[in-house]
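Homework help board

Subject: predicted structure for assignment chain

Our instructor gave us this sequence and asked us to write out the predicted structure in token form, then describe one feature. I got the tokens but I'm not sure how to describe them. Can anyone check?
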Amino acid sequence: MPIEILMPALSPTMEEGTLTKWFIKEGDTVSSGDLLAEIETDKATMEFEAVDEGVIAKILVPEGSEGIKVKTVIAILLEDGESTDDMNLTDARKTPPAQQESKILLTKESDPKKVVTTDNSINKSEQRIFASPLARRIAAHKGLDLNTIKGTAPHGRIIKSDVEKAITTINNPPLYDANADAVRETVLSPSRLSDDNVTKIYEKREYEIIKLDGMRKTIAARLTEAKQTVPHFYLRRDIMLDEILDLKGKLNRQLADSGVKISVNDFIIKACALALQQVPDANAVWAGDKILKLKSSDVAVAVAIEGGLFTPVLQDADKKSLSTLSSQMKDLAARARNRKLAPHEYQGGSFAISNLGMFGIDSFDAVINPPHGAILAIGAGTKRPIVRDDGTLGVATVMSVTLSVDHRTIDGTLGSKLLTAIVDNLENPIAMLAW
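My token output:
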């Protein structure tokens, strides 16, 4: 029986991807382990290997195709002894979406010359409406005609959110400018600003369209979800860096021949990892109906790349030396910029660090990356006047940080303890070397 080669899920969060390149062509014989295609996910470009042996009978999705849903049939493989006669490509699941839209179906009871097409010229009332039972109940209760609602689920299926959006539009009708050449909706809130409306606003201005890749789409979706669903609260502290800067200089002079160079960021990673051990109840993530309290300190660090960012995770960071953390971080950052990280290298962890101090930013509030419980935003270390413990005035290098906390997972007092532990570790760096 012919084998369907499906669009793989190359990471737990992958929902769709871009088939950037085929390594095979129709008629090629492949064995288990052979490279079939190169696929771009939301975070990386990865190679897809064959699992079965046989002959590639049909490639259904051309290379360069974007937005291919996971489990979509992308090719057909024939096993030994099978021929193209064994294939049944009339199944809609084996037909690329672009072909499905223009597909022509012959009816059994009618004249063979008479055809029924699936294009948009058919009266909507004569088409079958795909909708979830809940969407149907809500629409019936509100007296809405499902024919007037556009479904956003796969295959145009109407779901609860589509009906609720339609209800919102009815309850808050658009305002119109009677003096405009064309009827335009006056935007009252971001939720009502459609893609077409944004384009219309700037139709008389010059602009360049930048096509969104999978990474930028995923970042937009995840950060929108994070700000809408995660109850953030923020804790701020200033940290004296003079002792760290002094210790960093001594260590780097001693490590000069080894090629290892410790950075302030390495100290920050270590300090956060230790703080998660010192305040273990804060080493946790939100899992919907439960909280997962982690044993190890797995710390994610935001790395900016062209078109987006990665958050590679340093596992067991509390148990590693500063030189090991430095080497691993440099390796992860380099491979992140080339989009060569494996999914397990940028997923997981309970805590993240985002450092914009190197860009001269004094302070900022970072958005939590679910399911993390918190993220620490690092500002620049700058010379500032201070009042010392003995009441005298002095000058110190001070760094401002903001801890963004998921209130579902970590309460205010617990978050304060975590940030205090981080500050204590950074202001007393010698003690960190004993761990």
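Reply (TA_rk): Your tokens look well-formed. For the description, you could write something like this. The chain has a mean pLDDT of 82. That's the kind of observation they're looking for.
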